[in-house]
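Let's practice the habit of predicting before peeking. Look at the sequence and jot down your guess about where helices and strands might fall. Then scroll down.
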Amino acid sequence: MSHTTIPLPGAADHPSVPPSAIVSLRGVSKVYGSEETRVVALDDVDVDFLQGRFTAIMGPSGSGKSTMLHVLAGLDTASSGRVEIEGTDLVGLSDDELTRLRRDRIGFVFQSFNLVPTLDARANILLPLKLAGRHPDQSWFEEVVATLGLQDRLSHRPSELSGGQQQRVAVARALVMRPAVIVADEPTGNLDSEASREVLALLRDAVDHLGQSVIMVTHDAASAAAADRTLVMRDGRIQADLDHPSVEALGTVGL
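Done guessing? Here is the structure:
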């Protein structure tokens, strides 16, 4: 599916998108309310998310980190600016086109696993393909299942799986579509420390061994330290852009 990129007023004031960027934001602002109730959640943000990288987004409550994730994933619309996924500008897409893009090119991993309780693990993993009317690539399915260690759990329903196993199924479901990018919104928020480490390892494996691109919002410095890069948000802007930061380094940026 291809779309014509629609130029926006002022777009020429911002640098062009580099070819290795899987997701790009140019001059993106998001404003809620007006006058006395006006809140600027994102303030003229320029950022590229590179292919094959694991990027974490951190920041205090109200910093704009979740808003940025929702805007770049097409779950919310920017008030101004340009948002591109694989060179496709989300501005100007119809609701149907945006739905298809989210379904086909974005994998979602949330705090709640959102598994269908009446379906076994195999059916849950394949559900996005079924909804899209597409046949699974069996070799890719088997590679994902093997990488996530789910071979002997495919016939189990969610109630028969541990929390960590359910999250593995959720990650596999996000991967099976071969998305351009996986977005993870606080994926360890409801898990204990051991299960959190497991989920971070799964996302790390998706990048290192399956060639995926991952963008994760987290409030936890230890989780962010598992990423290749961490963006620290404050007041709707990127305050720091850190390459392979340590937990200690993240503790010095004023979260």
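How did you do? The beta strands are 21-32, 39-50, 54-58, 80-85, 88-89, 106-110, 181-185, 214-217, 229-234, 237-243.
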